[in-house]
Amino acid sequence: MIRFRLEGLPVMDAVAVGAVHLTKRYGRLAAVDDLTLEVPAGEVFGFLGPNGAGKSTTIRMLLGLARPTAGRIRVFGIDAADVVAAHAALAYVPADVALWPRLTGGEHLELLAATGPGIDRAYRDELVERFELDPSKPARAYSTGNRQKVALIAAFATRARLLVLDEPTSGLDPLMEREFRHAVAAARERGQTVFLSSHQLAEVEAVCDRVGILRAGRLVEVAAVAQLRALHRNEVTVTYTGAPPRLSGVPGIETVETGGDHHLRFTLTGPPAAALRALAGADVTALAIREPSLEEIFLDYYGEQAGR
Amino acid sequence: MTGLVVRQIRGGAAVVAVICAGMTAIVAASYAGVMADPAAAASLHRIAGNAAIRTLFGEPIALDQAGGFTVWRVGTVIAFLLGIWAILATTRITRGAEEARRWDLLLGGRVSLRGATARHLTGVAAAATATGGAVAVALAATADRPTGAVVHGAGIAAIGLFCTATAALTAQLFASRSAASGSAVAVLAVGLLIRMAADGITALAWLRWASPLGLLELSSPYRDNRPLPVLLLLVISGALGAVAVRLAGRRDAGDGLIRGTPGRTGTRGPLGSVEAFALRRMLPALTAWTAGVIAYFLVIGLAGVAVTEFMAQNGSIADLAGQAGFGGLDRLEGLTAAVFGLLSLPVAGFAAVRLGGFVATENDRRLTLLAAQPVSRVRLLAAETAVTAAGMAFLVTVAALATWTGIAAAGGEMSMAALLRGTWNALPVALLGLGAAVLAAGRVPRAVIALGSLPTVGGFLLYTVADSVGAPAWVRGTSPYAHLAPVPLVPVDLGAELVMAALSAALAGAGLWAYRTRDLSG
Q1: Are B123 and B6 spatial neighbours (Cβ–Cβ below 8 Å)?
Q2: What is the pLDDT of residues B271-283, one digit of tens each?
Q3: What is the per-residue pLDDT across A55-108, written as a single tens digit (0 to 9) for each?
Q4: pLDDT average, residue stretch A267-271
Q5: Which residues contact residue A42 at a Cβ distance below 8 angstroms, ignoring those fewer than 6 apart?
C-alpha cells in the first residue's frame, strides 16, 4: 500500500475511507451488512441508496458516532473510533443540521473553527459571501437551508483531507446548489476527498467520479458513473426501411417495442456487438442510442428491490 | 392526540404518584410507633412548635393524629415534588415539543395551537389530579378520619394543577423551554419563600394567602378541614390555565409572547474551546439558579437571627430539640447547619438539569457537529462535568455569602469562614448527584435527571422515612445524609466527605468510560 507524508500529519494511508466487512446490527435488523468499500484519496465519491438503505448508519460509523457490530472502518488508515486523530482529517455536514438557537451563524463558524481541524479564514469569508449567509442572525431565525449553509461553509473552509457530506443540498435552492457544485469542484482541485451521500442524482452525476449503491445494508454496485451506464440498459431507437430486423433471441436485447412507422425501440444491456450484427441484416436508416441517466440506473435498483 | 399526550407523560406521572402515595402511606403507618414512646412524642410536639422547624417543614397542625402528623412531615415535600414534575412535564410536552418543531406536524392537521395546548394541559392536569387522589387514598387507608385525607389530597392535586397552569402560561410567554420551566419553578420557589416567611414570623402569617403552598397549609387537614383555600387555589389554577389557552390562540406557532431582541440574543462569551463553550452555555442557567439561592439564603439569614434569639430565651425547648437531634437551634451555627444540609438538594438538581440538557443536545443532534470535530467524547462530557462542578461550587459559595449578608442585615454575627465551611460541606453530597448524572449520561442517557437526583432526593427521602419508621441503622446509613455532619455546628467530618467525593469521582469516571464507547443517539 502506498504511503506518503503530508505536511505536519503522520504517515497516512492513500485510502481516504476504508471499510472492511463493516456490519451494524440493531437487534435482528442489519442496518449495514458486511460492507467492504475503499475510497481512494482525492476522489469524489457518491454514496447512493433508497431511504433506510444504511447510508446514514455507515456515515455515523465513519464518524465514530456509532460503533460497528463487526468489521471496521478507517479514515486514512486511522480507526474511526479514534475520533481525535480521525477527525483531524475530516469535516462533516449532517443531513439535518441542528444548531444552538442562541448562537448566531457567525458564532457557530467561530466555534467550529476553534474546535476543528484548522481552517482557511479568507476562503471562509468568501464562502459566506457566495452562499449569501447572514452570519449575524441567531440560529433560531435560520431556515433549513440557512442552517445547512452554516455547516457547509464550516466544512468547505477547513483544509480537512476528507469531506463527509450527508445529503448536503436537500434544503438549498438551485442557485445555492450551483455554489455547492463549485465548492466541491474547488475541493477536488485542492486534492480533498469528498464522500457525498445524496438523493439528488443529477448532482451526483455532475460531481462524482465513482458511485456506490447501497441496498438493504449491502453494497450492490461500486463503479464509475460512465461504467455504470455501460452496465445498464441503453435505449436504442432504430428507423428502417423494408423488413424489420430480427431481434428475438439476441443476447442483451429486451423489451422490443415496434412503432407503426418503421420505428423500433429496444433496451440493450451489455456489449452491443450482437445487437449490431442483428441490425446489420436490415436496412437501417437511422440509429440512436441514449445512455441511461443515473436516475434511471438508480430506479432500476429500486425496481429490483420492489420486485424482490 | 390524547394518546400522544398520555404516552409522553405516563411514565413520569406513575413514578410521581407512587412516590407521593407511598411516602404518605409509609409515614402514616409509622405514626403509632413514633407515638408509642411518650418522651419522643413530647419532644416532637415541642420541636414542632419551633419557628425554625416551622419555617423548614411548615406549621404542624394536628400532630395528635396519624393523618395530621403525615401531612406535616411529608405534605410540603410531596407538594413540591408533584409541582416540579408538573412544571417540567408541561413545558416539555408543550413548549419543548413546539421548540423542537415537533408540533409543526400536529398543527398541520386539524388541530389549532389553542386546541393542542388545551389538550396537553388537560393531560398533565389529569395526572396531577390522579396523584392527589392517590395521596388521599393512601392517607385514608392508613390513617383514620377520611375528611382530612380528602382535604389534603385535594390540596396536593390543587398544587399540581396550579403548577401545570403556571407552566402552561410561562410556555406561552417564552419561546424557549428552559425559560418557561425556569420562570415557572421560580413562581413555585417564591411561593415557598413566602410561606416560609409567613410560618416563621407570626406578624406575617397572613402572607400564607399569597402562596400556593401557604394555601395548602391553610386548608388545615385533620384539624379545621377548610375547603376554601383549596377552592381558591383551584379557581386561580383554572383562571391561569384559561389565560394560557387563550394566549396560545393569539400567537404564532414557535413564537413566545415575550420576544427577545431580534438579531442578537442570548449571552456573549468565549467560544474558543469545548470547555469555554460549555461554560458559556451554563452562564444563563447559573445566573437564574444563583438568584434563587441568594433569595432563599438571604431569608434564612434574616429570619435565622430572630429564631435563634427566641430559642436562646426558651432554653427548655432548645434542650428538648437537642435531644431529638435538632441540636444547637439556639445558635446561628446550629440553625445554618440544619439548613445547609438541604443545600445539596438544589445544587445536585442544578447538576442533573445541566447534564440532562447536555444529553438533550445529543438527542436533537445539536451535538453532532461538535462530535464530528477532532475532540474526544471523554473531553466533551468531561468539559460539561467540570464546568457543572465549578457552577456547583459557585452556588454553595453564593449560599454562604447570602446567608452572611442576611445575618449581618438582621444585626446578627457569624464568621464568613464558618458559613463557607457549612455550605462547602454540602458539596460532596451534591457531587454524588453529579457523578450519578454523568454515569447515566454514559449508560442510560434517558434517565440522567432521575439518576442525577437519586442520591440527594432519594437519599433525603430515605433518610426522612427511615427516621420516621425507625428503620434499621444500615438502611438509614445508605443515605448520604446519614454521613453529613451538621457543619458549622460541629467540625467537618473529613473522612465522610472524602469518601463521598471519591465515590462521586468514581461514578463520573465510570460514566465517562461508558460514554466513550456508546453509540450517540440522534
Answers
A1: yes
A2: 889 999 999 999 9
A3: 999 999 999 999 999 999 999 999 999 999 999 999 999 988 999 988 999 999
A4: 82
A5: A16, A188, A191, A192, A193
Residue B58's nearest CA partner among B80, B90, B83, B35 is B80
Q: How many other C-beta atoms are found inside a 10 Å radius of the C-beta of residue B258? A: 12
Contacts of B399 (CB under 8 A, 6+ apart): B293, B297, B340, B343, B423
ipTM of the modeled complex: 0.81
Distance from CA of B278 to the nearest CA of A (A): 11
Each residue's pLDDT tens digit, B97-151: 888 788 888 888 888 999 999 999 999 999 999 999 999 999 998 877 889 999 9
Q: Which residue on chain B is closest to A84 by alpha carbon?
A: B374
Q: How many CA atoms lie within 13 A of B215 on its CB side?
A: 25
Residue B454: HSE in the Cβ half-sphere, 13 Å Cα cutoff: 15
CB within 8 Å: B369 and A112: yes
Q: Does B365 touch chain A (CB under 8 A)?
A: yes
Q: Which residues of A touch B (CB under 8 A)?
A: 60, 63, 65-67, 83-88, 90-92, 94, 96-104, 107-108, 110-112, 114-117, 136-138, 140-141, 151, 154, 164
**Which pTM value belongs to this model?**
0.82
Which of A32, A93, A111 should be substituted to probe chain B, the one whose Cβ sees the most B Cβ atoms within 10 Å? A111
* CA–CA separation, A249 and A266 (whole Å): 13
